[in-house]
Amino acid sequence: MNRRELLMDRARSAYRDAFGAEPTRLVAAPGRVNLIGEHCDYNDGLVLPCAIDRETVIAIGESSSAEISTVAADFGFERDAFGINQTITPAGEDWKNHVRGVAHMLRQRGIELRPAQIAISGDVPIGAGLSSSASLGVAAALALTMHSNAALTATELALVAQRSENDFVGCACGIMDQLASAASTAGSATLIDCRTLDYRAVPIADSLAIVIIDSGVRRTLTESPFNTRRAECEAAARHYGVAALRDLSRADLDENRQNLDETLFRRARHVVTEIERVRQAEAAIAGADLPALAQLMQDSHRSLRDDFEVSIPQIDRLVDMVGDTIGERGGVRMTGAGFGGCVVAVTDADVAPEVIARVETGYNAAADANARAAVYAAASGAGPVG
Ligand code: GLA
What we know:
- The chain is α+β, with helices and mostly antiparallel strands.
- Helix content is 43%, strand content 23%.
- Strand 9 and strand 10 form a beta hairpin.
- Residues 34, 38-39, 41-42, 173-174, 176-177, 336-337 line the site of alpha-D-galactopyranose.
């Protein structure tokens, strides 16, 4: 069995064990890695993530009670149930809230939910910055929508999952993760304009490999300064009198700075320069322009480290070591919200084994750490499976 078949098998058997019946359908939604464009989505900017070959699989089927009953194979086969005719409220554990929140938001959109039984199984590492939450949210939105005989576009599914995170789970995330999970194309990154929600596939040159290095340092966004960063960006946008930092040019940044304090200025500078880097990275990734990619990803990392202040020493060390190995044969930077999690390298495919060896021997021995590196494929977005 391949990776996906194993997940499907696990979801099906969790379903059988919990509910004594067979599911009627299976759906999957991937995690994502952001190649460049960090902390730009909630500033209405541009981002360039790609879906990865790690995902959440949901098995869903009929229920005879007026409830949605859920079992999570990866959380000790824990169960949850909530009535579909009552107000849906948060339940405590995070995984439960992702399903409840999505059900609540679907109902708010006017979708009449049908009773359902759900089994969840996934292999997106949790808390690593690869969007396990978004993949669960999008998978739940797709499963419940299809089960209720409704149809939503990829963008609508992503919005449902994002609102669930924002207003139910309590994380002020932008739209990037959910839209990457819902709308990506295999073999491509997805360039998203987070203001208009327009997106397009940017084919990743065949000669390139995506290497993800998991530092092993875990965090949850609701407990990290993520929401503070978002508030700082909004305060900076108010200072400049723009709807969002996306509307600022580099020239505006300095010309209209006036009495803006140093911290908010640096937050704004990160966002403005990062959006410019996304525009340039599109061509570099499609055309395998490795020296350009090396520079853009290095600048992105430094900006996140120094101006946005969301990196940590272990991640900086990994980025330095891997950067040293790659040279100009690709780029490397922290990825995701920060405060731990993963580093992403986009390199000439021939360089990937060197990167993996450097991390798993050099870095781990020197730092007494347990970082893991592997090549990932750019996967397609959410859909039915099996
Ligand atoms: C998290 C959020 C995203 C985005 C990134 C940072 O993954 O969920 O919306 O803001 O951080 O780029």
